[in-house]
Amino acid sequence: MQRRLFCALLPSLAAAADAPAKAFPAAQGWKPLFPAGSLAAWRPQDASRPNTWSSSARVTLDPADPTRLTSAPGSGPEVWNSPTGKVTNIVTTESFGDLELAIEFMVPKGSNSGIYLHGLYEIQVFDSFGVTDLKTSDCGAIYHRWIDAKPVGGSAPKRNASLAPGQWQSFRAFFRAPRFDAQGRKTANARFLRVLLNGTLIQENVEVEGGTRSHMPIPEAPRNPIMIQGDHGPVAYRNLFVRPLRADDNR
Q1: What's the N-to-C CA distance of the chain in angstroms?
Q2: Which residues fall within 8 angstroms of residue 216, CB to CB, at 6 or more apart?
Q3: Alpha carbon of 21 to those of 14, 39, 198, 222: distances in Å?
Q4: What does DSSP assign to residue 51?
Q5: Contact, 209 vs 189, CB < 8 A?
Q6: Rounded distance, CA 189 to CA 53, Å?
Q7: What does residue 14 show for φ and ψ, rounded to 5 degrees?
Q8: pTM for this structure?
């Protein structure tokens, strides 16, 4: 019942691929971060390395190698990080507080990426198709922290909703930023209120005590940027929209 309710309430990102502005209108507070495939809202995390992410009219699996991606000539709405996926992470130039995020992604076989809200707290992007024993490294996990050379915490997805490699998939995330008092002392941890993968609820009310593994070297704060991991394997993204978390969802 709960899964059906969420699916009925939330617009389909797959359907939005052809008309994202209609599905996520500015009038409802949505802001595109890859408008028409533009990377103007992003910078490389490592300023010493060039931003070699690029836009394409169409990204697909490489027919000669299912562990790689390839793209059609010309620019377009789909953003990807090269056939081998060994490029710098990208970070938004804007910072965000409490937010709702919608995004589509594609991974080839065995590939790996991540979406770091506030540059610190990762929703794992991974080829987890067919996995039965879900861990904090699987797709849709809130990744674990890394303390004293060991994994700590994290939250595995409630169920496996991953599609096969080479298919476009979608996340919808509702995120509450950490809270601080007037002296800058943290009074409440960051929290993923809900995360949906392909319309299925996979995370609910997950508290994050600090930055997860490979996070940006920045402190927790009321507002921070979004980072996308680009150096762990090929990945493509499209239809990335954010808006401030609405009062009805801030619970």
Answers
A1: 21
A2: 45, 91, 116, 119, 120, 224, 225, 227
A3: 13, 17, 19, 28
A4: -
A5: yes
A6: 32
A7: -60, -45
A8: 0.91
Q: What pLDDT, on a 0 to 100 scale, did the predictor assign at position 49?
A: 79
What is the DSSP pairing of strand 78-80 with strand 236-244?
A: antiparallel
How many CB atoms are located within 10 Å of the residue 2 CB?
9
Query: How many residues are recorded in the chain?
Result: 251
Q: How far is CA 214 from the centre of its chain?
A: 14
Tell me, what amino acid is at 148? D
* Nearest-angstrom CA–CA distance, 166 and 155: 25
* pLDDT for the residue numbered 1: 43
For the chain, list residues with pLDDT below 70: 1-21, 250-251
CA dihedral 223, 9, 23, 178 (to 10 degrees): 0
Token digits of residue 240: 């990335």
Note the pLDDT of residue 11.
Answer: 44
The type of residue at 61 is: L
Which domains, and CATH codes, for the chain? Answer: 2-249 (2.60.120.560)
Q: Token pair for residue 248?
A: 């009805």
